[in-house]
Amino acid sequence: MHLSPADDAHPRTPGEEQFALAAEVLALLGDRTRLTLLHALTGGQADVSTLTEACGAARPAVSQHLARLRLAGLVSTRKEGRRVVYALRDGHLRRLVDEALNVADHRLGDRPLHD
Asked: Whose CB among 2, 50, 87, 99 lies 3.0–4.6 Å from 46's, allowing a Cys bridge?
């Protein structure tokens, strides 16, 4: 297993509040639709229609997931006329989504191939 260099590690020992908030963020990422939405937003800002196409879920479900992500502070919104445009709140979340997908890539690569 490949581990990131030590300089990428958290600089200090986290307290209970950091562990609680980190667990909350990871729980939100634990939903396939929300992870797909966040991944779509790593490419830039998007509206609900674009995000609905990207994840293949029903529009009402996408709106509910986006509302949860917004309330958790993971995405920001702005209005463009009647459209609401979503964006990732910061680069840390982009890296977290990328790393989760990199872990998946490694795990898929470690599986034995079947005929």
From this structure: 50
As a whole number of angstroms, the longest Cα–Cα distance in the chain is 54
Per DSSP, the three-state class of 86 is strand
22-28 — which CB contacts under 8 Å span 24+ positions?
24/72, 25/72, 25/74, 25/93, 25/96, 28/68, 28/69, 28/72, 28/74
Q: What is the dihedral of CA 10, 89, 71, 104, to 10 degrees?
A: -60
Euclidean distance between CA atoms 69 and 42, whole angstroms: 14
Three-class SS state of 75:
strand
- Give the single-character DSSP code of 76: E
Residues in the chain where the model's pLDDT stays below 50 = 1-3, 6, 115
- Could you tell me the strand order of the sheet in which 46-47 lies? 46-47, 83-88, 75-80
